[in-house]
Amino acid sequence: MAIEGADIIKAAAFLGAGLSMGIGAIGPGVGEGMAAAKACEAIGKNPKEAGLLTRTMLVGQAVSESTGIYSLVIALLLLFVV
Amino acid sequence: MSYDVKTWVDVAAFVGAGLSMGLGAIGAGIGEGLTAARATLAISRNPEASGEIFKTMLVGQAIAETAGIFGLVIAMMLLFVKNPNPSFIMVAVFIGAGLCMGFGAIGSGVGGGFPAGEACTGIARQPAMTKRLNTTMLIGSSICQTPAIFALVTALILLFSDFSALPLCPTWAAVLGAGFACGIAAIGPGIGDGLVAGACCESVARQPSSATIATTTMLLGMAVTETTAIYGLLVSFILMFKTFPATDAIAPAMALLGAGLCMGIGAIGPGIGEGLTAYSAVGQVGKNQKNSAELVRVMLVGQAVSESTGIYSLVIALVLIFVV
Predict the structure, then answer these.
(1) Which of A24, B65, B77, B245 lies 20 to 30 Å (CA to CA) from residue B22?
(2) Centroid of chain to Cα B244
(3) CB atoms within 10 A of CB B301
(4) Do B126 and B210 touch, CB atoms closer than 8 A?
(5) What are the start-end ranges of the E strands in B100-210?
(6) ipTM of the predicted structure?
(7) Domain ranges of chain B
């Protein structure tokens, strides 16, 4: 079984794509969960402001999501472009 | 220096057994330690209830131990079940099964410790609620064990399926990937479920009148937290039961291994994050029953957003399996 350069490069790209998306998903998952946890606590203390708090939570989570999307982009680039 | 197939299969079985029991002991050790710590504090706070607290601690620890026992069972099987006709694919199968059960037991072991600890604290605070607390703890910590059960199922399927007729490459990567996908994916949801169940035990003790609504919210929160473990199980089933065409190249094998790692590691974060969300929501529902509908809605929205990275991982894993 002769191993060719192109084969190794593809193999590394596939493994890299999996690792990029897998490890990249840890941070946003935990971070967004924390944001939502604090939003629940805040709504419990001050239910009148529920709308404002939900909006703030969603904006904060969207920002926290960005690194997860970067991971997705890099994974897709590794799979289909490189 | 060359060894025959049988030697390699034995080596893999012994390595797999070590991984299964070694990794599998981490979670139960930490979880039961947490329970004992909370029980000790609880007894110092309310020595009259020490009998009940001690009993609850032991029952809770026994449930947290389940995941560790699964690791022991798989390790024993790897050590003592001998296959009459060994083939090279079994090397990957045995190591995959050991890794799957070892990683899979971590989350449930740690998670099972939280509700038991909170139940002990709750009995010290509110001895009249002992029975209800024990029930809540039993429900909560049993659900915590589901991710470990997924890992056990995957490990048993790996051990008892016959992969020898399939092409060695890329099947070796598929079975290893299946082990990673289900095993590592069980860590996050196991810990997250434990946090939710712990918050419910605390709520029941602080506000006995809110026990029903807190338990309902707990079950809902745990169900959502569990989803990423189910994605892991799904990916590992696809990897185990799909037949991949024979190939000499490394790239298709690495795609399957990458799919398993992607889904497994990608499930850790959403599992813990959704658990944190439901933890706070259950706590607030107990304190603020009037607004429970609003709180549950925000909890579900927050969990859904937190889930998104887990779904990205699932998508990339499926692309790696089916497209490239």
Answers:
(1) A24
(2) 28
(3) 17
(4) no
(5) none
(6) 0.92
(7) 13-322
Hey, are the CB atoms on A30 and B276 less than 8 Å from each other?
Answer: yes
Domain chopping of chain A, boundaries: 8-80
Residues 6+ apart with CB under 8 A from B34: B110, B113, B114, B117
Q: Residues near B197 by Cβ (< 8 Å), separated by ≥ 6?
A: B111, B114, B115, B118, B136, B137, B139, B140, B141, B143, B144, B218, B222
* pLDDT digits 0-9 by tens, A45-60: 999 999 999 999 999 9
What DSSP designation does A49 have?
Answer: G
Q: Which CATH architecture has domain A8-80?
A: Up-down Bundle (1.20)
Alpha-carbon distances, residue B105 vs B21, B54, B127, B224 (angstroms):
9, 25, 32, 20
Do B268 and B189 touch, CB atoms closer than 8 A?
no
Using DSSP, state whether B316 is helix, strand or coil.
helix
**What's the pLDDT tens digit per position in B116-139?**
999 999 999 999 999 999 999 999
Q: Which amino acid is at B81?
A: V
Phi-psi category of residue B2: left, alpha or beta, with phi > 0 → left and psi -120 to 50 → alpha: beta
Q: What is the spatial distance between Cα A57 and Cα B164, in angstroms, rounded to a whole number?
A: 52
Distance from CA of B278 to the nearest CA of A (A): 7
Q: What angle do CA B292, B199, A27 make, to 5 degrees?
A: 95
Decide if B201 contacts B140 (C-beta within 8 A): yes
Partner A contacted by B109 (CB < 8 A): no
Locate the chain B residue with the closest alpha carbon to A17.
Answer: B258
CB contact under 8 A, A43 and B310: no
Q: How far, in Å, are B78, B89, B98, B133, B191 from residue B64 at the CA level?
A: 23, 34, 20, 16, 12
Token couple for B163: 């992969």
Do residues B264 and B181 touch, judged by C-beta distance below 8 A? yes
Q: How confident is the model at residue B81 (pLDDT cuts 50, 70, 90)?
A: confident
d(CA A82, CA A76): 9
